[in-house]
Amino acid sequence: MEVPTAEQLMSLPPEYLAQDTSHVLLRVTIAVTVITTFIYTVFLVSRGFCVERNNPEIWILPALSFIFCVGLWSLSYVLFAHGGAGRHLAYWFLTDPNVIVTYLKIQTAAEFVYVAACLFPKLTILALYLRIFTDRVVRIGTWIVIGVCIAHALGNIIASFTICQPFEYKWNKTINGHCANVMASYRWVSIPHILTDLAIFILPLSSLYHLVMGKRRKLGIFLTFIVGGLGVITAIIRCVNFWTIDLESDPTWYAPTLFSYTIVEPSAYLMCSCFPSLRPLLRLVYKWTRVKIDSQYGSGTGQSEITLKHLKGSHRSSTSALKMLSKSSSNDDKSDFIHLNDSVDVDVSPPYGVARV
């Protein structure tokens, strides 16, 4: 980042100095925050109330993913409010140079938070592969990708710590120090990042295609990976921007675009890792809605079967009754009642035995 001279600053036109695109970053951050938080909340409800058994990684990895995504969103808000995002660097040299220091501090913090925010959703998805797939090739490939992802994350952290000597020189240019080619590090570390993204996306496709399951369920799984594909596309666009934009020439001006991609990518992976766990809740809502419709309007034969099932657990009990619908509900005071037959059969599944009433 070069410091312009006073003559260069004074020669800039007022229209150039008045340009401001910070609203782009604010809108993207709000949208990503709301959508991702909603998906994660539904994920917690689904896993907590509709699934009997949850392995520890089901709670730990998505929670860490969400925490680091919140960290990125918070940095984005601070970058909008205090980091000078959206204005040209020359504007801050003329009005408030301390904003530039704040921007560089936020950028430094984002480098570390971004690495973790991308790593943990990937580990969540890969842990899902290990639970679902039994194919030996897929499992070996999954463990290899896990190792590459962790090694790549550690490499990014080490590079961020060592690229400037001393470390403080990254944001404090008044002290003696030097930095290596920061833009080159941004560009080259993005390539392994994209390769691991593509590996995660491609790895299970063959097994998914040959899975024996209903078309609706298979479509839902493929849609999950399509959402993950959005994260891959975002990572590619972010990498291309690093190659085509000279960030150091005007970092505050380019910040809204680059930081928007930075927060969208890990958020897309977090949502992708949550989607498979939403199915039990969606299935329950579908059945509940179907029962409500059947009980209100009845089936084509004038009868409606109402089934009550225990919400949680593998051992379920059910009670069935036929509701006879009246042809004229306006004059029938009993149209809202369920008319039972002479007997009701109640089956209780093992291990409690079988009982009949």
TrEMBL record:
GO cellular component: membrane
Chief localization: membrane
Family matches, as InterPro entries: Rhodopsin_dom_fungi, SAT4-like
Pfam families per UniProt: Fung_rhodopsin
Domain Rhodopsin, first and last residues per copy: 63-283
Subcellular location: Membrane
Residues spanning the membrane: 24-46, 58-80, 112-130, 142-163, 191-212, 219-238
Tree of life domain: Eukaryota
Keywords: Membrane, Transmembrane, Transmembrane helix
Membrane topology field: Multi-pass membrane protein
Family (UniProt): Belongs to the SAT4 family.
Protein name: Rhodopsin domain-containing protein
Source organism of this protein record: Polyplosphaeria fusca
Taxonomic path: Eukaryota, Fungi, Dikarya, Ascomycota, Pezizomycotina
